[in-house]
Amino acid sequence: MRDGTGDWARYWRSDDGALEAMHAHFERHVYHRHSHETYSFGVTEDGHQAFTCRGAAHTSAAGMVIAFNPDDPHDGHAADALGFTYRIVHLGPDLVSGVLADIADRRAALPLFDAPVLDDPVLARNLRALHAALLGGAPALRRDELLTATVGSMVRRAATAPVRPAAPAATARIAERARRRLHDAPLDDVPADELARAAGCSRFALYRAFQKAHGMSPSDYQRQLRLRAARALLASGEPIGDVAAGTGFADQSHLTRWFVRYFGVTPGAFRRAHAEQ
Questions:
Q1: What does residue 180 show for φ and ψ, rounded to 5 degrees?
Q2: What region holds the HTH araC/xylS-type domain (predicted)?
């Protein structure tokens, strides 16, 4: 995908959706604050990419590795006018758990990564090799070997115990009630007052609790749910216009704008990548 601004992206997705990869160069593109249901491991090839994650600002320069846990809210943009080029792979938690179980020959706990940016040439080299194999059409056996090596090295060299403080019990309850309401009917046009009533608090208390628990506003979270639903429909082959109408977006262009801001590729590029598998 090229958009005429110097930005481009190439995307790959496995048949089951448990593994995704993207190679991209962004100068003007700005990621809206979002999260993934997956682990996301990236390596910056050129330039500097800046983002906020877990309440702090970070910059990944050439050769550095990015590590996001599932549901880690973050944004992203070029740190300067020259832009940045990076490779990133997204791995479903079940896939990671299965790889770790194979390595340890027993059921393994899911890892957590404390540092969103790592300066580790070994991890960078492993990620580049895995990424090149995925986008380059390497044989399945080779891909699986590189996947095992990459996940194993990420866990050995970078996984840590969680350091994020737990939200107070009352705050967590408010956020969970609101989250359940949004998950129960993500296409509903829910006013703030109604969501606050479902959570049992004021609108201000709801926003503060939700932001603390999930790292984003309720409206951003709802949009993310709709975009994830759109991804599933696109992967099943649904026409983009129908997907837009079926997931709460005004039209195809509205879906496309937000899809790019969250995932870095257009709905059409995502759909084609899945169809080519």
A1: -60, -40
A2: 176-273
Helix (H) or strand (E) holding 85: strand 84-91
| Residue position matching structure tokens 């951003």 | 220
Helices (H), the chain: 93-104, 121-135, 140-158, 169-184, 192-199, 203-214, 218-235, 240-246, 252-263, 267-275
Query: What one-letter code names the amino acid at 63?
Result: G
CA-closest candidate to residue 57, choices 75, 70, 40, 41: 75
**The token pair that represents 53 in the structure block:** 């994650």
Among 73, 31, 16, residue whose Cα is nearest residue 262: 31
Q: What's the pLDDT at 163? A: 40
Q: Where are the domains of the chain?
A: 8-160, 169-275
Q: Encode pLDDT of 94-118 as tens digits.
A: 999 888 887 775 666 789 999 999 9
Q: What is the pTM of this model?
A: 0.80
- CATH level 3 topology of 8-160: Jelly Rolls (2.60.120)
SS (HEC) of 173-215: HHHHHHHHHHHHCCCCCCCHHHHHHHHCCCHHHHHHHHHHHHC
Superfamily grouping for domain 169-275? Homeodomain-like (1.10.10.60)
